[in-house]
Design goal:
25% of the residues lie in helices and 23% in strands. It is of the alpha/beta class. Bound molecules: nicotinamide-8-iodo-adenine-dinucleotide (8ID) and zinc ion.
Length: 330
């Protein structure tokens, strides 16, 4: 009982708008599965794709979305379970869901059988959707940072989708969190709901570098910095406040941005600056397992797939605390 047609959010040209309309349901190839998407998170990457922010073109017309969670309803002959822990995100021929191939902003989505994340039946699909990009990405970034239990990590962009999950994963890993973002709602969420030990408001602070350092117990700065903001400025500040021997992990991808670090301090503090890009299938199953064990509770709001434009408008203004998840039945 797979329908011929389905509802989807489609962009015809770079710059948008997204159009909510009926399109055909695709048939899976031999190594593919057809997933009936129930819920999809909305990542800032989806908005970057609409706006053409990056030096990498999207397919057009495009169904965006890459935090889809659903049920496999059809599969090709070659599909079987495969375990892998390579650097598959770095594959030069990688297919990017919701970017170079159609993604999860539709009711029925094609995926490679070897790459779909296996979600335990006990896990609610609306809550897990944001873990499927945001959660995996920040979990991987925290691992790449080398931060150890008991140490302090600054999460910059802490109130957004990636940031709110980063706070939860960091806490579950035994790290102390300094949240950097702006506004009362994100402050309250970070300190009261997500367990951050300090909040630095980048918009009202007169000196973010000093305030982040002052929020660490010995004033030397955090052991690691996780950059998930959609703004160039913090990418040019982190090296200044990270602790000697500390690590700066770059994850956010603001349009046209450059990293900057003072050579003198970077050398004498022996700091590391590193990029981190999503995660592999091993990271994915580990990140899902944290959720299954009840260690991850990040706030999300559910709205209909038809309301995607409203979500993008709020996202562009930085007004989303946590994540929006789309219900594909509405
Ligand atoms: O694999 C990857 N590297 C990867 C994976 C997934 C997403 C990278 N990303 C990228 C996205 O493309 C996007 O550029 O991570 C970035 C964050 O995605 P998101 O969490 O989905 O975005 P959001 O929910 O809009 O949150 C961004 C937060 O940054 C804050 C905003 O207030 C918002 O809460 N922020 C900004 I804008 N400027 C800031 C500043 N100067 C800041 N926070 C601190 N300091
Ligand atoms: Zn994403």
């Amino acid at each position: 009982n797979i329908p011929e047609k389905q509802w989807a959010q489609v962009i015809e040209k770079t710059g948008g708008p997204v159009e909510y309309k009926e399109i055909p349901v695709a048939k899976p190839g031999p190594d593919e599965v057809l997933v009936n998407i129930k819920y999809s998170g909305v990542c800032h990457t989806d908005l970057h794709a609409v706006n053409g922010d990056w030096p990498l073109p999207t397919k057009l017309p495009l169904v965006g979305g890459h935090e889809g969670a659903g049920v496999v309803v059809a599969k090709g002959d070659l599909v079987q379970d495969i375990e892998m822990s390579a650097d598959e995100p770095l594959c030069p021929k990688a297919l990017l869901s919701g970017y170079t191939v159609d993604g999860s902003f539709q009711q029925y989505c094609i995926a490679k059988g070897a790459h779909v994340a296996r979600i335990d039946k006990s896990i609610p699909l609306d809550a897990i959707a944001p873990v499927l990009c945001a959660g995996i990405t920040v979990y991987k970034g925290l691992k790449e940072s080398g931060a150890r239990p008991g140490q302090t990590v600054a999460i910059v962009g802490a109130g957004g989708g990636l940031g709110s999950l980063a706070q939860q994963y960091a806490k579950a890993m035994g790290l102390r969190v300094i949240a950097v973002d702006s506004g009362e709602e994100k402050k309250k969420m970070s300190l009261e709901q997500l367990g951050a030990s300090a909040f630095v408001d980048f918009a009202t602070s007169s000196n973010v570098v000093k305030d982040v350092q002052a929020a660490t117990e010995d004033g030397l700065g955090p052991h690691a910095v996780i950059l998930v903001a959609v703004n160039e400025k913090p990418f040019q500040q982190a090296a200044e406040y990270v602790r000697p021997r500390g690590t700066v992990i770059c994850i956010g991808l603001p349009a046209g941005a450059y990293l900057r670090a003072p050579v003198f301090e970077s050398v004498i503090k022996m700091i590391v600056i590193r990029g981190s890009y999503v995660g592999n299938r091993k990271d994915t199953s580990e990140a899902l397992e944290f959720y299954r064990r009840g260690l991850i509770k990040a706030p999300f709001k559910v709205v209909g797939l038809s309301e995607l434009q409203m979500v993008y408008d709020k996202m562009a203004k930085g007004e989303i605390a946590g994540r929006y998840v789309l219900d594909t039945s509405k």
